[in-house]
Amino acid sequence: MIVPVHKSLLEVLREDLSLTGTKHGCELGECGTCTVLVDGLPVLSCLALPVELQGREIKTVYGMADNGRLHPLQQAFAELGAAQCGYCTPGLLLTAEALLGDNPAPSRQEVREALAGNLCRCTGYTKILDAVELAALRMQGSGSRA
Amino acid sequence: MKANKLSIIGQSLPKIDAWAKVTGETKFADDMFLPRMAHGKLLRSPHPHALIKRIDTTRAAALPGVYAVITGHDLPRVKFGILPVSQDEEALCVDKVRMVGDAVAAVAAVDEETAERATRLIEVEYERLKPLMSIEESLASPDVRIHEYGDGPNVHKAVSLEFGDVEAAFAASHLVREDVFYFEGNTHLPMEQHSAVAHWGADDKLTLWSSTQTPHYVHRLLSKILDVPQAHIRVVAAPVGGGFGGKLDPFAHEIAACKLSQLTGRPVKITLTREEVFYVHRGRHPVLMWVKTGFARDGAITGMHFRSWLDGGAYGSYGVASTFYTGALQTVTYKIPVYKFEGARVFTNKPPCGPKRGHGTPQPRYAMECQIDKAAEQLGLDPADMRRRNLAEPFTKTANHLTVTTIGLGECLDRVVEASGWREKRGKLPPGRGIGIACSSYLTGAGLAIYWNDMPHSGVVVRADRSGLVAVLCGATDIGQGSDSVLAYVVAEVLGIEPKDIRVHPADTDLTPVDLGSYSSRVTLMAGNAAIQAAERLRARILDAVATKLEVGSDTLVMRDRRVFVDGDPDRGVSFAQAVVHAESRFGVLAFPGSYAPPKRAGKYKGGGVGPSPCYSYSACVVEVDVDVETGEVKPREIWIAHDVGRALNPLLVEGQVEGSVYMGLGEVLMEEQVFRKGVHKFPSMLEYKSPTTLETPEIHTILIETDDPEGPFGAKEAGQGPLLPVIPAVANAVHDAVGVRIDEIPISPDKVVKALELKRQGKAPRLGPEKLPLFTFPEPRMIESAFGQPAEAIAERPFAS
Questions:
Q1: Quick check: A71 and A97 in contact, CB under 8 A?
Q2: Does domain B456-596 have CATH number 3.40.50.2000?
């Protein structure tokens, strides 16, 4: 697709592609809310320029479920109350997915470190950490996804 | 309904909207894109205090892509405010700006970028006035007036109430302490920036979708501000991406979006930038406090005199209520036989303060709980034991005429003391490590609406039809706390169906009965009780119809597992959907209202309307910290908190509210502050306004205590605000236990700890905090007899109860 060079990935996703599942909290790279995965790695979409991402795989929260089957992280976040207002949730889910892709059995401290760039004002993080741990366990148990 | 028969209540179920939230389906206000929609921007003042001499919008209006430019002259010249007594705001200032961030003009354009560019082409000529940036400065500058109304030059509100003779109580006390504390202001910092979409239709009717916690109050005020009948305005609450009290006022961007839509004939969206969110604020008031308390030898409190000075910022907002709240709830945790309160809210040229989680009560709670800690030390008492000894009596009145029902604070205290190992750790931890304790209480819904009326505070309609679907319509707003889910749970419980069988409709002033809004921890109790009433009315009709069909008495039937059947004989019955068919066949349309208004218990004195609540939640908290004596950094190691929630309708959601409150309290006590330099916000960004990340939030151990309060739905009390309160003083008391210094000023930032440790090393008083009080004379106190210890009325008068 063709977009103006100065438009951020966040703006293109939300405004040009109507993919509003990706949220924004500051548009200055401070809060982690707009995180998406670029080739599997978390990237702040408000600071990324599409012109530099040609040919790369971009995954938003919409890409997490597999043919209507929720990703184990989505399932665990819903079950354990890890999403309160839910505004930071898409960014946190994708950051957590990148973590589990890299480290399938992280310690609680490793989960804390991986998610330290994503602010959440509702949960106090406890249920989020619990949900990532539960999803990791379930993914290991099944040998793959869920 | 007996506890052992409950099937939904008490279960840790996922929220009904959890699936939409984890898939990105939830549509927040800024996710709305309507055909032909224009994008709006506000031009805001760069000066803290100035007269507007001239505004020229010609160049902006001429910019290609601009649809309309407005100033305050395009709106009716009427001032507004959330409280009837403080009508002092303009959506777009006409003559004067009172803070950096006051809006003066608005633009609608083809896209956000063009709108932004156009605002820069608006020429505004200001005549700068002296900015007043602190309580002291405002009180010392009566010649410079921020507003022309109030209780004195730059004094918005001054109050003075005395319940019994405090001086006599002090004279008879074994120990009398006077302490001074300061609590710096901080902001809500919701992850979602405020956003609104307005559409003024060709039928001359207005629809506003907004991220607001109070669609009803916005509806009322839009009518006044825009001079349009309320009946022609529809306000729809979008899912709110975090509120915490920050989305409780009508805001300039909402009003400007409406006007711009009228002028352009297009839907108009305005979403604030993060920087603007810091300016609209309405957050925690900075409060300076002086507290004098008398104690008996055994630690019993004999009387208290509390003074607070609030830095209100540039406008009234909820400030009159905030002022009273800094003096209202001191009396509901411990026995305080006589009590005096004096408070003053002062205008300054800063963003207006208002309600943030705990509204006006975390500041005095911090002061009071730290003072009790100091008194315990002086009296040689264990701080936990001293609190235990002073607990208020359930089902009594307080000195200031608040009626308290159930109190689970004793059990809360015992449980955190035990879980934390308080007795093993207190005074025995290694140097630099300490443990602190504090208690608190909070409202379960404000007893009075913000405007005087005799109507319900919460209304619910429960509707069922032959499809078997049950719809719940309520004007309450789910701000993430799970209030829509709570409505589904209570209705499912009454009707014997599953939450999934119920659709809860979001607040829409065209469709849903009025609910006052998501504030003062009121929704679970008030909308919950209204929903139960509505569901029970539906239930009665269903049982009646099924009983006739089965030729049994309706009192022999039960509703459970999506069926209606004879108790003890499950085969004799029908499915829920079939039961609804029977009821609809017999009675016609099945739609039943439920209404709730709190018991009328306000104290019979001016100011007695702030503080009453159907019931109060209680919390006790123990915090263990490490203090680095070199850097002054305070690191919480673990937190134990017990919360009396009455009954946990869904323990998972209650835990989430408690954990979120603890986290927010930690941010306030250790790092968060909304501060200014030379009239300008020091750091209106999420990077520099420090808030805790996963790395700064320790393990939180939550203990839920159930007291089954007679006022609450299935016995429930609030959980969303109260648990924030004890965290702040518990940390301050733990810091003292760790390194022997008192930090009488919030936040307890490393620089303050280092300074206090240096004072200690020099042999000076090891305390950091305010040294002096402003020169201010409070009004003569209103003398009211103390109601302390009087029994609660056996049956409180509650409107719409039957």
A1: yes
A2: no
- Give CA separation, B53 vs B47, B123, B125, B723, in Å: 13, 11, 5, 48
User: What pLDDT is recorded for position B25?
Assistant: 97
Cβ neighbors of A82 (< 8 A, separation 6 or more) are: A76, A89, A92, A123, A127, A128, A130, A131
Nearest to B487 by CA among B449, B458, B516, B455: B458
Residue A75 has pLDDT above 90, yes or no: yes
- What does chain B come to in residues? 802
Nearest chain B alpha carbon to A77: B22
Instruction: Report the C-alpha gap between B364 and B290 in whole angstroms.
Output: 9
Q: Mean pLDDT over residues B515-541, rounded?
A: 98
- Tokens 């603890």 sit at which residue? B662
CA distance A54 to chain B (A): 24
Whole-model pTM?
0.97
How many whole angstroms separate alpha carbon A96 and alpha carbon B243?
A: 25
List pLDDT tens digits, range B688-700: 999 999 999 999 9
Q: Is the pLDDT of residue B508 over 80?
A: yes
Q: Is the ipTM of this complex over 0.90?
A: yes
Q: CB B662 to CB A124 under 8 A?
A: yes
Residues of chain B with CATH 3.90.1170.50: 29-129+193-240+247-280
Sign, Cα dihedral of B241, B245, B250, B255:
negative
CB-CB contact of B84 with B223 (8 Å): no
Q: Convert the pLDDT of each residue in B570-604 to its tens digit.
A: 999 999 999 999 999 999 999 999 999 999 988 88
Chain B residue with minimum CA distance to A89: B22
Angle at CA of residue B790, ends B788 and B792, nearest 5°: 120
Instruction: Name the average pLDDT for chain B.
Output: 97
Domains of chain A by start residue, with CATH:
9-62 (3.10.20.30), 66-141 (1.10.150.120)
Is the Cβ–Cβ distance between B169 and B3 less than 8 Å? no
The size of the A-B interface in CB pairs under 8 A is 170
Contacts of A69 in chain B (CB under 8 A): none
pLDDT at B298 > cutoff 50: yes
CATH number for domain B287-448+603-784, candidates 3.40.1010.20, 3.90.70.10, 3.20.20.150, 3.30.365.10: 3.30.365.10
Integer angstrom CA distances of residue B737 from B255, B425, B426, B479, B732:
51, 11, 8, 38, 9
Predicted confidence (pLDDT) at residue B408 exceeds the cutoff of 60? yes
Q: How far is B14 from chain A (nearest CA, A)?
A: 5
Residue pLDDT, tens place only, B597-642: 999 988 889 999 999 999 999 999 999 999 999 999 999 999 999 9
Residues of A numbered 99-118 whose beta carbons fall under 8 angstroms of chain B's beta carbons: which are they?
111-113, 115-118
- The C-alpha atoms of residue A68 and residue A66 are separated, in whole angstroms, by 5
DSSP string, B218-249: HHHHHHHHHT--GGGEEEEEPPPS--TTTT-S
CA distances from B390 to B113, B302, B393, B569, B578 (A): 60, 10, 9, 52, 56
The domain made up of B29-129+193-240+247-280 is a member of CATH 3.40.50.300: no
Query: Is-contact A88 B191, C-beta < 8 A?
Result: yes
Whether residue A143 has pLDDT greater than 60: no
Residues of chain B with CATH 3.30.365.10: 287-448+603-784, 456-596
* pLDDT, position B2: 37
Q: What are phi and psi of B548, to 5 degrees?
A: -60, -45
Span B196-202, mean pLDDT? 98
Say which residues have a Cβ less than 8 Å from residue B35's Cβ, sequence separation at least 6.
B267
Confidence band, pLDDT 50/70/90 cuts, at residue A104? very high
- Contact at CB, B26 and A86, closer than 8 angstroms: yes
Q: Return the SS3 of B120.
A: helix
